[in-house]
Amino acid sequence: MNDAFTTAARRHGEKAATDSHGFKRMEKTHRTIVGSTMAQFLSSLRERNVSPHTIKAYTGDLANFAAYIGLRKWRDIDHVTIRGFLSQLYEKGLSKTSVARSLAAVRSLYRWLAVEGVVEQNPAALVSTPKLPKKLPRVPTMEEMNSVLDGDMPEIAAFPERDRLMLELLYGCGIRNSELVGVNLDDIRLSAEAILIRGKGKKERYVPFGDGVTSALAGYLPVRQAVLADSRKNTSALLINQRGGRLTTRSVGRIIKKIAVAKGLSPDVHPHTLRHAFGTHMLEEGADLRAIQEMLGHERLSTTQRYTQLSMKHLLAVYDQTHPRAK
Questions:
Q1: pTM for this structure?
Q2: What residue spans define the domains of the chain?
Q3: What's the rounded Cα separation, in Å, for the pair 127 and 149?
Q4: Is there a catalytic annotation at residue 200?
Q5: Annotated catalytic residue: which of 258, 272, 306, 314?
Q6: Considering Cα of 151, then 156, then 159, then 162, what sign does the dihedral take?
Q7: 142-322 in CATH: which number?
Q8: 2-126: what CATH class?
Q9: From the candidates 200, 258, 306, 314, which is the catalytic residue?
């Protein structure tokens, strides 16, 4: 496993001796007992199709943990040791969010160690997660979303038919940016008015779509075919760039922001904002929370329940503005 660990470290650009915060990199951690076991854990994450972003983050977090632990064995590590590790992270200037993520990585590692029979207890479970400020995302109102989707695309839209479809899919289906760019033409079930989505962990789900997506598809598909004919390319991707290649998540983010600003929305708008708007507006209009969970592809209902907070915020605002005894 040592070679696998070295490969993983190099893949994530961690050959240097220290990072921007002064932490030791993975250069030597794989030579320790702890480092070798971590390599097996990271390999198990890849086998489970865990998000590459999560694996990349955990690789760096656990490299710092292995560097802090040094030559100690698992039996020598307790909750006091882990608290010391977190204290070092604070001393190096990491934010509460980054420290909380590091703790989550260590907890996940220990859960895997318990399953593998390496340890009997999880000392990380005894360490409290740093309290993070609860930030509710500001989502556009229904009126604002209608203003974006109604009428023509702004002049800055280089591929207006495609860009309209992107907006309709993100808001109309509540899908993630990564899911959007992964949609293939064959995933569209026009007769069923549903689309096959491949979510996190390659889990598949069908999400219904309405007239807005149907209309946008009708306008986009002939133009898509013409672009592919001109570029002499053949791709299964639903959404393509003007050269006939599959769109990237970065391109989607840039396009959505430009159109949103041109339509009068906040510059803070990004693809995930439209996903939040989907969940919030569905709940405000009376949709069942579990139905929203299914459409969003949330593994836990608690993740979906944040939209109840957003909806309550909306209800309080309406109450304050309209009820005669509110003030």
A1: 0.59
A2: 2-126, 142-322
A3: 47
A4: yes
A5: 272
A6: negative
A7: 1.10.443.10
A8: mainly alpha
A9: 200
